[in-house]
Every structure is written in C-alpha cells, then in structure tokens.
Design a protein that fits this description.
9-stranded mixed β-sheet, 24-stranded antiparallel β-barrel, disordered N terminus, Immunoglobulin-like, single chain, 695 residues
Length: 695
C-alpha cells in the first residue's frame, strides 16, 4: 500500500508540460485594418504565426495545408488575419448557419486567448469559412467551458482560388485583460475538412485547449482597459391563446408585456460582477422533442446568459446546480474572479412566489478552484436552497438543503488525467444527510480515448438542485469506456473506429446487482467520406424499480451508414432491432443536413420505433435556417411526436442590429392529435428587443 502511494505521488509530481512554447509578435498599426475578409497590402506589417502541426491524422507531423496568422493592434482593438491554404477549395464544408453553433465539423479556425495570463482560463473565438461565429469561455485549464459568454466582436471571410481568408476584430473593451502585461497566452487551431486534417500552432499536441500549454503573443504596449460597466435592458411582449377547457372548444387570450435588465461591472482580472433583474426566460427556439422508453428526466440546455456564463465555473462530474429547475426569477447576482492561482465564483438568486418548483425560495452557490503544479486543480463548492416554499425533491418536508463538495482534477505524466469529487448533503427535517463520491481516470489522445471510473450515491443524499435521477440513489457503479481509431489509407478505406462501453451497478443496501450493460460499436470510414458501422448492446436493467417498473432484459443489434459532413451536408441513417424495457423494438432513424445554397440549411431528424406489441410511433424534427445577412436570419421549425400526439411549429426572425444589441420576433403553435382533430393546445407570439450600453 505504501509503495503504491509513493508511486502515485511521484507520478503526479512529474505532471509538467513537455511542449516547447511558440511565440508570435503583435505589431501596433495606424490606420487600423478594414475588417472585410480580404487582406490588403500593408494592413498587417508583421511576421505571421505559421508552421502548424497535425492533431489528426498524424500527431505532430507538419500540416499538409499550412495556415498563416497575422496579429496587429491599436488602441481600439486586437486584429487577427488568417490565411488558410487549401488544395481542394471546392470541398470546403460550412454546415453551421447560426452563431454559437458547434463549428468543429466545418472548415473553421479557432483563436483561444488567455488575455489575463493566468494559464487557466481563456476566451474562445471560432469562425467557419462562411463567416458564422462562435464565442465562449474556457476555464479550469481546459476542463470546463462553453458558449455561455457572448462578446462584442467582428469576423469576415472570403474564398480565393487556393485559400480562404478570415479577419477578426476583438475590441479591448470586450475582454478582461492586463493593460500593461506586454504578452498574452494564445492557441491557434484549424479544422480542414477536405483533407481530413486538424492542425494546431502551440501546445503539446494532446490537449489543444489546455491553457497552461498555450503559446505566447508579445508586443503589446499601452493598451486601454476594458469598459468597466455594461447595461443590457430588454423589453418583451408576449401574447398567448390558451384553451379554457379540456375539449379545446373555447380559448382565452392574454397579452403580457415585460422588462428587465442585466448589469455588469468589470473590476479587472480579480473581480467581475453581474446583476440581473427579472431575466428573460424566453427559449427563442423550442426544446427538441425526444422519445425515451423509461421515466428518465431529459436534460434541457440553459439559454439565459446570466446562468450560461457561470456554468463553466460550477462544472463538475456531478451536476450540482441544474439551473433549468429555477424558472421564475425576481433578481440575481453573480461574482467571478481570480486572485493569484485561485479562481472563485458566487451566485445568488431570489425566486418569485409563483415559481412552480421552489416558490419564493433563495438559491445560493459558491465555488473556489486553485491551481496546483500549473496544470492540476483542487476546488470546493457549496449549493444552498432555503426559503418559504416546500421542496419538491425527494424530501418534500424540508425547507432548506445544502450540498457541500470537494473535487480535484489532476494531470499526470504521459497524458493521463484523474478527477475525483466528494459530496455531502445537509437537509433540515427528516433524511437528506447522505453523501456521494466519484472517481475516474482517463487518457484522451487524437486517435484514442480511455475512461474508467467508480462512484457511489447514498439513498439519503439530497440532490434536489442538481441533475440526478431518482434511480441513481442507493447505488454503486463501475464503468469503463474505450475508443480507438486506426488510420488505414488502403484502397478506398481511410480509417477504422472501435468503441466499447461497459457499466455495472449494485444496490447499496443489499449488494444486489441492478444494472449490467455492455455496448460495442465498430465503424469504417472511406476516402469519399462515406461510413458504415455495426453496433449492439446486451445486459439487464433494474434501475427503474423506484418507478414501479420491473427488471428488463436488453439485447439489440444495429447497423449505421451515411456520409460525414461534406460541402452539401451530411447523412446518418441507423437501424436496430432488439429487446428493451420488456418489449421488442425495431427503430429506424435518419439525420440529414442539406445546404442547397450557401445561406440556407435544411435539417431533418426522423425516428420511427415499432414495438412488437403496439403501433409504431414517430418523432420528426424539421428545421430551415436562412441567413439573409451575417447578423440577420430567420428560422422555421416543425416538430412532431406521435407517442404523445403533440405537434409543434415555430418561426423566428433574429437581428443583431448593433454589436451586442438584438431584436427577436417569434411565433409558436402546439397541437394535440389525441382525438384525431389536431386541436390547438396553445398559440404564442413573442417579441424582444435589447440594447447594450458600455461605459
């Protein structure tokens, strides 16, 4: 035991970066470049960052199609020009059409900027070759992040004969930075789809978003500070048509105006304060229809900026704070910042008396993370709910519940990582004073991934604000997951993929197994981007006993095929047959993306499930997205689910009429076909306008 402990300690102390740091110099210019997607002679009088290396398919090898990145600045902004050389310019892929879409399947570039030089956090700016933008934040040295942060910046692109261009303008007023720092951390990446190549400029090549391994951009002098105050007031008008009885024979109409404001104060690197009054809960785009064959709760994405910007700070293996449970909010405040190696965050929300789950309650959260040995972190968090309303969680007699958590995220020599978390709940009233813990080790790389872990959740652990299912209580679980890609390039075959997943659960009170499941998947990809695969699963499942469901056997086999993302879109079709949850099913699904013209995208998702003892049911999601201009678009969605006989249609127009200021108008209608008459459940019209003030 002692020898093993010493080995682990020595292994951990060896967790240092082996990468040679890359450096590029930014040059002050006057006049500033014109951001139009075209590089003009003299606009960027500097040496470029070049010499990109492959992340895929061959780690560390020189890029086949190189990239040049030029960086200049003035008192107003930071300007970045990209020259992306491409042998197959007609094969460029750009399927994303809406800001903050997932851009990695497209031909895109990615700038990650550690403006504070804290080696732990960074801003993330991505643009695909069509000019669609993504922005977000990275924290915990690449272990957390997402698109919650929305900055005010610009990007334009153009396509030449053998290269495409992108110009970025990132105002100093939009980012927190050190005015006299002289340098910043930077990572540059490119996804090149026609050549099946992902390339990078800095880092050790294994974890491209690990901030501690970024390169450096130098040459900054006399920078202005960021704008310290931001105000975003908004106004909305919502009209509803709702049925007055269960027969949908009569309806009532309601018109509801509303208003609110978000306020931000930047105190530099150590301090950032956000306040919100009556934040807008409009989803703008409807949550997707999903068919589930068990009582499991569906995770819904958070879309309110007040919460999305805090998700990376509170991200841990167990989701402690699931903010979609907080609906009617009167006011809230959030503070984040850094002090040396320590990052901290706090959140407090007061709910309205008519909140459906926690009426009139107050929810508070605090989080602290500190860096250990540059690339590893340890942290802690406290989540608390208390107030006038009763809890609607497992313990409905409690008026207060607190969850305390300690966690660690360690990086080891050789690319191994390990995370661990321990949680304890403290609930007023009966029960709710249990604990939970989680431990996992994993090893990601460009062509493989391995993950093994163990966790335990006591029956009396009160999880009410987190995302945890009732069936996850009173269990121990062990699991492992592995993925490996083999580069082949023989004849028409490009690569082979092999995946496997295994999990096993035990009930804590009697040690009996309640879940045992294994799922393999194999796929071959061809040089013309076609793919074909086979997958299956086997096991038994008694997890849903708490919902009154018996133990079920699971065994199925399926096939998949289609074409990965190409210039005109993508197709993924699947079929599987087998026994699940006490019935035999045949399931057919198709996911299709088409780009008939460069500014129009058509998405179709179709799933048909045919149980042997019942009639088939179908889920359909059809979406049209059209970019009239880069900052003006419309979107139409039709969703149908014959399992619960609901159908939904919505139409949205969105316009960013000034940087950071937006206008939305939407119409939504839901119908119920239970009776065969397509009765109108409700109709809704919605309009919102917001305006950004910066001081």
């Amino acid at each position: 035991m002692k020898i093993g402990f010493v080995f682990v300690v020595v292994f951990y102390l060896c967790s240092i970066s082996l990468a040679a740091e890359e450096t590029v110099r930014a040059v002050r210019v006057n006049p500033a470049p014109v951001v139009d997607g075209v590089m003009t002679d003299g606009e960027y009088p500097c040496e470029p960052a070049t010499g990109f290396r492959q992340y895929r398919p061959s780690l560390g090898e020189p890029a086949v199609n190189d990239t040049e990145v030029y960086i200049v600045y003035d008192d107003d902004a930071f300007y970045v020009a990209w020259v992306c050389y491409e042998e197959n310019i007609d094969g460029l892929v750009g399927n994303a059409m809406v800001r903050d879409s997932f851009l990695n399947p497209d031909d895109c570039i990615d700038l990650m900027l550690d403006a504070n030089n804290d080696r732990q956090s960074a801003y993330d700016f991505m643009v695909n070759y069509r000019g669609v933008m993504y922005d977000g934040e990275i924290s915990r040295d690449g272990e957390a992040g997402g698109p919650g942060w929305d900055g005010v910046w610009e990007a334009k692109t153009s396509v030449g004969e053998d290269r495409w261009f992108c110009e970025m303008k990132i105002p100093w007023s939009s980012i927190v930075h050190e005015a006299n720092g002289g340098s910043m951390g930077i990572q540059l990446m490119r996804c090149e789809i026609p050549g099946h190549e992902d390339t990078y400029w800095a880092s050790d090549g294994r974890y491209l978003n690990r901030v501690s391994t970024f390169g450096t951009v130098t040459g900054f002098e006399g920078l202005p500070g960021p704008k310290r105050f931001t105000f975003i007031p908004y106004g909305t008008v919502r009209g509803d048509q709702l049925p007055t009885d269960e027969t949908y024979s009569t309806y009532k109409k309601e018109l509801t105006p509303d208003a609110g404001i978000d306020f931000g104060l930047r105190g530099g690197k150590p301090f950032h304060l956000n306040l919100t009054l009556n934040p807008d809960y409009a989803h703008i785009e409807a949550d997707p229809e999903e068919i589930v064959l068990n009582p499991e709760e569906i995770y819904l994405e958070e879309k309110r900026p007040f919460f999305t910007e805090a998700q990376s700070m509170f991200g841990t293996d167990f989701t402690l704070l699931y903010t979609r449970k907080l609906n009617e909010i009167l006011a809230g405040g959030r503070v984040t910042g850094t002090a040396g190696p320590v990052s901290y965050g706090g959140l407090d929300v007061q709910l309205e008396d008519d909140d459906p789950r926690f009426p009139g309650d107050n929810v508070a959260a605090a989080r602290v993370i500190t860096t250990v040995y540059e690339a590893s972190t340890v942290g802690g968090a406290i989540i608390n709910r208390e107030g006038a309303g009763p809890s609607l969680g497992v313990y409905d007699t409690a008026n207060r519940n607190t969850v305390a958590s300690a966690d660690a995220d360690l990086k080891f020599f050789g690319g191994w990582k390990s995370t661990g978390q321990f949680l304890k709940s403290f609930t007023d009233g009966a029960g709710g004073d249990g604990y939970a813990y989680d431990f996992r080790m994993y090893h990601p790389s460009p062509d493989s991934y391995f993950n093994v872990g163990y966790n335990e959740v006591r029956e009396d652990f009160n999880h009410e604000l987190g995302f945890m299912q009732l069936f996850e209580l009173n269990k121990r679980e062990v699991w492992c997951y592995g993925q490996k890609q083999f580069q082949v390039y023989k004849g028409p075959i490009r690569s082979l993929w092999a995946n496997g997943f295994y999990t096993h659960w035990w009930r804590i009170d009697n040690g009996e197994p309640i879940d045992h499941y294994v799922e393999p998947y194999f796929e071959v990809r061809f040089t013309n981007d076609m793919f074909a695969g086979v997958f299956g699963g086997y096991g038994y499942d008694e997890r849903f006993y708490a919902y009154g469901l018996p133990r079920y056997e699971t065994a199925y086999l399926g096939v998949s095929g289609g074409v990965k993302t190409v210039s005109w879109g993508s197709i993924d079709a699947r079929y599987w047959h087998g026994e699940m949850y006490g019935d035999v099913y045949n399931t057919y699904s198709a996911y299709v993306t088409l780009i008939p013209i460069s500014v129009l995208q058509v998405n179709t998702e179709l799933e048909v499930t045919d149980p042997a003892t019942d009639s088939p049911f179908t889920a359909v999601n059809f979406k049209l997205t059209h970019n009239i201009l880069q900052n003006l678009f419309w979107r139409a969605i039709v969703q149908s689910n014959t399992q619960d006989h609901t159908h939904l249609g919505s139409f949205l127009v969105g316009w960013e009429y000034l940087p950071g200021s937006r206008l939305y108008a939407a119409y939504e209608e839901r119908r119920d076909n239970t009776s065969g008459n397509m009765d109108v459940l409700d109709r809704r019209v919605f309009a919102k306008i917001s305006y950004l003030f910066s001081i």
